Amino acid sequence: VQLQASGGGLVQAGGSLRLSCVASGRTVSGYIMGWFRQAPGKEREFVARINRYSSTTFYTDSVKGRFTISRDNTKNTVYLQMNSLKPEDTAVYYCAASGKYDAQSLGDFISWGQGTQVTVSS
């Protein structure tokens, strides 16, 4: 499956952005989908995961209550709604696909999008 992430940009602290990840080649409904991020000089880190039918989501502690992952299998698209953004959320955000139900580490994901830059100013 090929993934294309978009929706990043520059936003002030406290603002919101919605990232989108469109899949092609294969239907996204066959995969557990996740979002990761990588800040300058830091390792890529897990942000959120959603299972195939949207019944289960999982978030890293730092974004709980602020970010929401969702998917629309009819549009072959996964979303990351980011609210109450903080400067420490600044990073390149990547979407990824996995066949593992509890995927969280980098190695659990088999396909990656190209990344979209999110910059939060203070």
Walk me through the topology.
Blueprint: E1 2-6, E2 9-12, E3 17-24, E4 32-38, E5 45-50, E6 57-59, E7 67-72, E8 77-82, E9 91-98, E10 109-112, E11 116-121
What structural keywords apply?
52% strand, 122 residues, 7-stranded mixed β-sheet, mainly beta
Can you describe this structure?
With 122 residues, this protein is mainly beta. Helix content is 0%, strand content 52%. It has no helices and 11 strands. Strands 2, 4, 5, 6, 9, 10 and 11 form a 7-stranded mixed sheet that branches. The chain is globular. It starts with a strand and ends with a strand.
Question: Which class best fits the helix and strand makeup?
Answer: mainly beta
How many DSSP helices?
A: 0
Average pLDDT over all residues: 95
Question: Biggest β-sheet: count, sense, barrel?
Answer: 7 strands, mixed
Shape: globular
Strand-residue proportion:
over 45%
Helix amount, in percent? under 10%
How many whole angstroms does the radius of gyration measure?
13 Å
Number of strands: 11
- The separation of the N and C termini measures 37 Å
The ordered H/E elements are EEEEEEEEEEE
Which stretches are poorly predicted, pLDDT < 50 over at least 5 residues? none
